[in-house]
Amino acid sequence: MKRIAIVFFISIIFLFTQTFVNAKAYDDFKIESNSTSDVTVNLFDYWLEDENMADATKYSNLENYGINKNHILLFGKGIPPTKGWWNRWSGDIATPVTNIVYPILDRNGYPVLNISQEEIDVVESLQGRTSESLAYLFDPSIKLEYKKSYTNVKKLLNYSEVLGDNYSCYKNFAKYNKDTNSIDLYSKPGIIGNFRQGQFFPFANLDDVFKIENDELIIKEETTSQNANINHFLGMSIEAEFVQPKDGYVSNNQKQEQEMIFTFTGDDDIWVFIDGVLISDLGGIHDAITTTINFSTGKVTIKPKEETAIQPSVNVFEYYLGEKYEAIQGELESNYLENNIIKETDELGNITKYTYKDNTKHELKIFYLERGHTDSSLEASFYPTINGEKQEMDEHPNLLPSQSTPSIENPETSEYIPIVFITMIISIIIIILLILNKYKYN
After folding, report:
1. Which residues pair with 212 in a beta bridge?
2. Residues 6 or more apart in contact with residue 64 via CB below 8 angstroms
3. Is the pLDDT of residue 396 over 70?
4. Is the C-alpha dihedral spanning 320, 375, 189, 46 positive or negative?
5. For residues 48 and 67, what is the distance between their CA atoms, to the nearest angstrom?
6. Chain-centre distance for alpha carbon 81
7. Percentage, residues of the chain above pLDDT 90
8. Tens-digit pLDDT profile for residues 1-48
9. Is the pLDDT of residue 397 over 50?
């Protein structure tokens, strides 16, 4: 019986060893980016006191701390409404705070604040400061004590036939990986926001966002968008080139003609520039707002992400992208409208199309900031693709976790279950043989 006990004990140890070896880690829940488009993504981390300090402190004079020093565009928790209209939360109906920046980029390709000196001087604590280029936030070559820049970050976007090149914080949590200078996408969204699950906080620690129980990735319900540990104050820029397809239409994998449409959602500030002109102005500290650009017609739509749209001119805005160029044509390069823009009207003179001419090449620049210490929503969808050739992919590849590591949930790809099963069978056979052997000699 002693031999039986020893064999049984060894078998149990082997069983638990295999369980430990095959236990899942966060890496097992990564999904691989499959986008091949040439997109430049830069990430920026900002702070008010210390890079690694929890950012929940509510300062009465936050304009004198960290990234806010000597500037008028403020980051912070609970920014008082007296700190300037451009720093004030827009309210419950999710409207953008427009005209914070000029409608054109500066000569170096960065947004410029459009706040008059009179408006600045009304704010007593900001007197003496001026409007300026936001290059100090978005130019990686400008080094500041309260800023870190991560350039040419890879793997933010995925590709699907339905959405094109895309990312959504409501589907996949995005974590910046300093070792690979890329975004690690996870099979679940992370961090609970005021309206829905899933937020964009790439500098958050995974242990604050998820836990693993029974080989399942579990979202920590206690970690909300107001949690002090998730590193709120951040920025991002996305740059890419694209070519206007014929009539603004493209063929999908089923050879069907589809309109080329780009869609962006964010809070706080999102400014979308094309050829240096502000096409969608989602500036300010606000709840999630979506803008859609239809390149077939040139129609641009801005409305709340959630179902809180009221009516046009209140929090839903529609216009044609061509109108943005027409409004500042005196500041454009010579013959820009003639060479790049096409305008069509119906018999009544109503605009039906005001978009880019076929086969013209354009430069897209998106600037994003999270300033307000609560939700940080981000979605981007470039349909059918931001540039290059479309790919033959499954319809929703971005929703599937990587299967490179054996999974206990999927016996067809699992090594863990067969090993345990075989170990148990061998142990039982050995025990039976030993028992039979004992009775044979008794």
Report:
1. 217
2. 125
3. no
4. positive
5. 6
6. 28
7. 68
8. 555 554 445 455 444 444 444 578 999 999 999 998 999 999 999 999
9. no
Closest CA to 173 of 222, 218, 216, 226: 218
pLDDT of residue 181: 98
pTM, whole model, 2 decimals? Answer: 0.84
